[in-house]
Amino acid sequence: MVHDSYLPPRQKVFNEIKKACIDMWNTFDNTYGYVDEKLAIAEQIRNVGGDVMILLNMFHPTLRELIIFELSPEAKDYINYYNKIHEEGLDPERYN
């Protein structure tokens, strides 16, 4: 689980990011069940704190950028919010 005090995205944004990640996993070869394993993890992730970022961080940075490129501006804003707090070690409660 990611830091509890990160503000979660709006449900619409969470659903968008989750769907984009699941759609990307479904483009991979599942011969050995690797995709099934990743999808099982994705299905368990709920919209709590910054946990949505777990979905994106399951991908290589290049694939992550491809996913983010296709997202709505609102989803990109949330990702930027999370990254700013995470990278700079800021207190999420005080960032807003």
Explain this structure to me?
Helices cover 64% and strands 0% of the residues. With 96 residues, the chain is mainly α. It has one domain. Helix 1 packs antiparallel against helix 2. The longest helix has 16 residues. It is globular. The mean pLDDT is 88.
Question: In terms of topology, how is this protein built?
Answer:
Layout: H1 11-25, H2 34-44, H3 52-57, H4 61-69, H5 73-88, H6 92-95
Offer a few descriptive terms.
0% strand, 96 residues, single chain, globular, mainly alpha
Secondary structure tally, helices = 6
Strand content: under 5%
Quick one: biggest sheet?
none
Mean pLDDT: 88
Order of helices and strands: HHHHHH
The figure for the number of domains is: 1
- What overall geometry do the principal axes of the alpha carbons give? globular
Secondary structure tally: strands: 0
- pLDDT below 50 for ≥5 consecutive residues: which ranges? none
Structural class: mainly alpha
**Level of helix content?**
55-70%
Distance between the termini: 21 Å
Radius of gyration: 14 Å
